[in-house]
Write a structure and sequence with these properties.
single chain; 77 residues; mainly alpha
Length: 77
């Protein structure tokens, strides 16, 4: 083996090791961010269905709109 071939092979091996370590670190970072997102996710309501909660929220929004329309038209509630 010539000296240049040995240097080239060692450089290639070093690059492969560096790439593997970087990819492993990136995968760990992605796992960390996924855990952070899971912790920030709001807890589900234990009782009732999601459809019922959505209906209540829509009713609340409709009530707010009605109040804003009344304020805009000058009607005192």
């Amino acid at each position: 083996m010539t000296e240049q071939l040995l240097i080239a092979l060692c450089s290639l091996l070093g690059l492969a090791i560096t790439a593997t370590v970087a990819l492993t670190g990136f995968q760990g970072w992605l796992n960390l961010k996924a855990r952070e997102l899971e912790l920030r996710r709001p807890s589900r309501i234990d009782h009732g269905s999601p459809e019922g909660a959505a209906r209540i929220e829509i009713a609340d929004l409709k009530e707010r709109i009605r109040r804003l329309e009344a304020i805009a038209s000058g009607v005192d509630l």
